[in-house]
Amino acid sequence: MSLPTQQLSQTSRTKRHENFCTCFCAQVEKNASSGNQLNSSYVEQASKLFLQLEDDTRWKNLSAFLINKSNSDRGELFNRFSNNWFTALDDIGVEHKELHLMRMLRLIMDVFEVEVLDADPIVGLHSLFVKQFKKLEITNIQSLCMYVLEQLLQGKSLPNRWIGLSSTMLQEVAKIDSCNFMYKAKHCSGSEFSHHFLLQCFNDVVASDSISILATLVKECGMQDVIFEFVTESLKVAVLEHSLCIKLVVLLSEIPNELAEQVCEFLLQEVNFSLSDLVPICALLHTSLLSNAVVSRTVFNIVKRERNLITTRVFPLLCLLCLTNTPRFHANALIEIKQNIVKLWKNSNKIKESAWVRIAVGKYDMTIMQENLEKIIDSVTKNQAWNSVLGSALQDLSLSLLTEKNSTIVKIKDGRVDDDSGLFALGKRLLIAIADSYQGDLGELLDQIFLSISKVPSSGSALYLIDVVVDIVMQHTIQVLNSWKSLRHLVDTICSLKDDVGVTLVRALLPIIIQRTELVSAIVSRMKKYVLCETTVATALPILLLLLRSSTVRAAVRSDQFSQSFATFSTQALTSMGVSTTGKTEVALEITSILSRTLSQAAETRLILYRYELQLLSSHLMSLPAISRDSYVESTKNSTILLEPLPHLIQAVSILTRLSIHASRNCSTQIVDRRDMQVARAVADVEKIVAFVLDRDIHDLEIDKLSDFSPSCAGRANLKFSYMLLSLYDVLVEHLWHVGNVLVDVEAAEKICGILRRKEELAEVLKEKLAKRKEGKAGKVSTSSPVLIQVGTVVSIMSAFIENKFASEIECNERCMRLLHSGMFSWVMEWSEQVSSRLNNYSPQPSLLLVTEFARLNLLLGCLNEKLSHGDDIFLWDGKCTQAMNAFAATVGYIVSKYENRRYAAIETLWRSVCNDAAHAEVTGSVACAFLIRFLIGSHLPKIFETYEDYAERKLCSEFTHQAISCLEASHEKVVLKEVWHILTFAARRASCKSQYIDLLMLASVQIIDLLKGNDVATQLESVCGESTELSADMVTDSCIASFADIRLVIEIISQPISQADLNASITKTLEFGKHLAEIVKILLPVYVEYAMLKDRICELLTALYSSLNSIVKLLLVQQKIVDVKQWSSVTALANLSRGSVLKIMEAADANVGTLSPLEESNLKQIRKYAKSLKDENLYVSYVRARELYQANLLLLCAALGDERLDVQVKMNSIGVRDFRIDADKLLQKMAKMEENEENEEPEESTPPKRKK
């Protein structure tokens, strides 16, 4: 029985250790079986052994062997060895007995950390440990307790058996009553020492796992008061440290609900660490939220109750996101955080409009939450540890924001959604950050996006999601390629998406699809079936055309020819992404065969296809029957349909013909290259139709004045056929202008004039026939052409007629020009007006250069500028000038709304076209805009008015009126004075609404009333005069209503205050501002009461006043349930305002506002009377409701506070005092009184009724 030496190998040493332990146990057991007699040899060997094991190295080696052996034999050998160890120590007098005793006890605790132990060794070792522990001295007990603390400080995971052993030890310590324990140089009993020791453990231990183990240890000891004391003392710290925060989060599940709520409130208000330090805290909190429903409910209730914490601090926002990542509170937490963000963004734009709102709100900063979210996004992108904490919370939040129902129109700019789109931009930013945080496959994220696209209520939200897909495809091309199986699942449902969402989504994913032959094959196979279904063909055909386009070699296209379509990738972008732009012949041939079969389908399907290619369309054009009503229109009892959209087909052939000419680098569209046989064949096919149209008049086509145009089957067929012919004439004129050599060939020019004469004849017939039809029976029939003439065509014709601009190679024939000018000018101006009103209907959208040129030509013609080449035969009262000004106004509005950032370039071009002063010709930006407005209002508008006075004919007056209106619409100035007031109100609300603004409104109000009274007024405001009195009153009312809206916004925002003092200050500022506004309302009230003007507007103003005051009263009613508001300065301000100006307004308005006079509506028609009655009903019901709510809530506040100053009563009026609740006591008293009266009254003799004669 000897210990191994250090010179042996590890294997040999292990065997020697095992032999030693076995021999030692055998010797001790043999000696124990011999009775009380000790063998001298055994004593000598055991003493020598204990002497050797006093060496630290030998003991460490033996301990390591025993721990490793316990892992393999589940503690069997160590259980036997430890029992014999303590037996030998008891039998033999060892010099350092305490040393060997303490070492073995520590070793037992170490062995209890072994992962797998059998039950028998555990029970045996546990009882042995307790037995030996009871023999220890106080100092050794304290030493063993400190060993427990050392184990906890290491931060390693400890099994339950170790915790049970430690708890038993501490329980034994607590049973010792002697005050021999020492803690911080003071004597204490065992229970006191255990209490202090565990508190010290909580203070010293840092690791979260050790804190959790320590909490379990304390609970098993039955000393939970230690946890409560530690937590209570921690809540009193002045500065919260990171380690203490972790401890409190871990202990949330171990403390009572009331204390847990205090801890949660403390953490939500005090935690202010960096996001990197918040990762472990949030991870622990997320674990607690998952495991403990009480903690989840507590955190959620606090965050919901104090919503300002979410908008101003990072940690509460993270807590709510952690709740979103739990199954129990996923939906509620997601709704809560979404509501806060939506409300925040909803109010943020309004707050930017008013500096006074920002001042009144105080510390509540709307930008804080945005900054916090941005910090979280950046941290999630950089630190992968957030993925386990937040999980899909940010993803669900971003998808929820992107699919939010909103009436905002999606702005498309340069092929992408405008980034300045508020709430949706935030959702997009979140989702892209989540994609950036993914290390591997993006399939799961793409599946969620595709699922959201299929569920969105509006196509606008779908566009935002698709815009995110575009960014993901551009930034993570390889990862999306690896996730192509998700796109494979999308193929099966792509045609079930709403509107053109499916086509747009495929366009966004096209760079990925064309690189995966599996996806291309799947799409072609699936679309082959979908093109045969009426409900899916509108999606399937464009998708096939997209694949066909991607399967052909891309050619370079000028960037200014067309506006970029949404979710498209340019050739340069595809090249930078590593996507090949070479063609795939096999795919193109298969798609072509599918598209060829669609020519035998319905007209709607073929209409989609007519934007395809020249060869197919030309072949199909030749197969069509001759033009007749029976061949192209089918009419039944219930419906009338067009069998073949011939005008669309011819326009498509014409456009593709011109593109083919340009592709062959022919400089002019007026000359056709006959070497291109396909182009020549298409031109010849269209020429046959031109010849047919010129050869057949309306009599030959059986649609003359003798034809039937009634609502019968034949009449509806004739009407449908006539509309098709009108569109056919238009597209044939367009085609001949481009490819018919009409500027040099007199015969070609005569063809255009002949076609226009055919159209004029048919239009006259339709005008006469439709005028005779009864509107009630026939209904309204649209006479507008379903085909849109290209903007470039209109620009080309107008440029030729107005400025004599042609291609440099063309020598224009004067005779041709005269023929075209006399026949086409009216036609092109009609189309100019139609094109300007339907610019949004073009696909693709015309470029900004083309639209600007279109507006410039209309401006020159509308103003009869001296730059016109043929302006001598046109006069200002000509209808062409009116049409030109209408087109100019509509086009300018389109440019301003469509090209927000590039609109100034167009405005500069328009200004230079009419500028005669070289000094001002080069101005840019807003200066050019101002000069153009000054030209339209200051120069051209007076010119219209002067000419208007010279010509009193009704038709000419109408032309001048339309021109003036269009001029004002183009200038965006309906009434100059009104716009000045709007600018003034806007500027004042952007500022702080100081006394100058209030003084201006007050001065204008007083001057308005003086003018109405007929008093002599010293001109203080030149804009407020006799002619503009009503308009000025309307503008002052608008300003006051906008300011009352600001008051309600402030009350809405401060309803969740940071502190009660801030709330009181904000309400006081609001009431001070409202006091000034009430004075203005009191001054303006006679406009309604005495002069019966602006009744609707004054009623709206009073409604705004009462609604604003009611919102303040309701807020105070809510706050008085929480705190005592009797001494608040805002209550005093409310009482003064209620008894001051507002009371006088109520006394004057109650008897007058809302009453209708029958004489006011005597001259109105029945329909207008009905519409006005509905409007008045809504208006006055809202007014009365706001009035009653204000006074009723004011009386409730008066009763709640016991403040008689708020008891406001209006003389001779019961509004606001009526109470429909039943008081049982009063009812009983009244009934008893009625019974007494009945008993006291004597019964009267009844007289028999008189008989009728």
Describe this structure in words.
Helices cover 68% and strands 1% of the residues. With 1253 residues, the chain is mainly alpha-helical. The strands form three sheets. A two-stranded antiparallel sheet has the order 1-2. The longest helix has 36 residues. The relative contact order is 0.03. The C terminus is likely disordered. InterPro entries: FANCI, FANCI_HD2.
Number of strands: 6
> What is the number of helices?
57
Distance between the termini: 145 Å
Morphology: flat
Major sheet size, sense and barrel closure? 2 strands, antiparallel
Strand share of the residues? under 5%
CA-based gyration radius: 45 Å
Give the helix level as a range of percent: 55-70%
Give the strand order, joined by hyphens, for the main sheet.
1-2
Structural category is mainly alpha
Q: Flag low-confidence runs.
A: 553-564, 665-675, 774-785, 948-956, 970-975, 1216-1221, 1243-1253
**Average of per-residue pLDDT values:** 77
List keywords for this structure.
68% helix; two-stranded antiparallel ribbon; 6 strands; mainly alpha; disordered C terminus; DNA polymerase binding; 1253 residues
